[in-house]
Amino acid sequence: MNFFIQLPRYVYLIFVFVFILVLWRVANIDLYNSNKGRDSIHGDGYTDKFTYSAAQFFHDYGFKKTFALPVLDYKGDFDTKGTGVYTHYPAYPDIINGITAKILNTKSDKLLRITPVLFSVILFFLLFKTLITMLPDKKWALIAGSIIVLSNYFIAWADNLHKHLYEEFYKWLYVFLLYLYYEAKAPGKIRLAILALVFFIIANVSFDGILYAAVVTVGFSIIYNKSILTKEVFVLGLAATLGFGFHLLQNIFYFGSIQSAIADLKNAFFQRTAGETQAGYINELGRPVYWYDRIALIGLYWPNRIERFFLVPGWAMIIIGAMCFRTVKKNNPKLFKILLCLCVATFSWSLLMVQHTLVHIFNTRHIGLFYALMLGCCLPIYFNKLKQAFSPGAPVYLKIFHGGLLIYIFAMVLSQQVFDLYIRYGFAYPYFGK
Question: What pTM did the predictor assign?
């Protein structure tokens, strides 16, 4: 409770603004006629439709018929012709929405968004709590948190029915709890058990989350224990395995055999990694993945895509990070190692699932936690460099460089966030956003 009292007033003003905008989007942007209001940049309405279909099916038929696996293309009219059961991804978001539909006795997609919005309210404060706990300067932690929650990364996805909201929620929760676990003087079995439970849930939210949390688990073990052969890695690895096993068990029950269930997941794996299936190249790219795709993905696509989700654009973050790299490492070596760990975790999915990342721009949101901590570490350092650059007697080229960088940042903020998110696909959407 003290945490909420200690937050400055402007954080609560930001909270009010953010959730008025979120609820405005819920009320005004239709799931089926949203145009770009719910595209892969602004909330992924494409997969929301799948989850909505599953929620309607669970409302009408319950969970037993498909072993709690989602049903696609169901219209809520008790006609199951043309529908299909989706087995390639964990079903936690679909189950959560199915439970909401049952409890509220509703098939309204707007009412179903109550649950993710409530999760987002918790995530809002979890973001600030995590940053304040892990960063050395509370003032800059609050600034970094404010930048994150005012970004498309948070706002357009706060009412997401599918995996995106839950994926980020449990990612932040897991890293926060893991940090507290290792920082505690006497880490207990209960804390480890809670972490294991969170990892089990992560494994049933998305495969992306499994890989991210696995990298973080191993990375933190190396940072704090100087080894990966630890009880933490074993217990949390077992939780991840059991979590994946739960989804596999659903598929086994549905297909009727272990062989069919494994073959189905194997086929999906090769499609997402190499763009290849047993039936040929039938993925969204329309071709296999080549070596240069990996280079372009990290070196070009990632930096360009960040500006669509965050207030500080990708190229600016790279420049600021490069300027502050050595200082962060010198001032806080342990936090620097954590940042490296989170950086590897961020890009792990992209490097493994190249086809999936090339096709889906929303994978850029994996950088959220790393991005926020980087902001909290680098902004105070950069702010000092900025003051030096504009101090009397400083070289003119520094003023030009930093002035140009700031103009670029503010131009991207105004065009990609304020106009695109707050206005066109926000408060002005009913009038000219469609």
Answer: 0.93
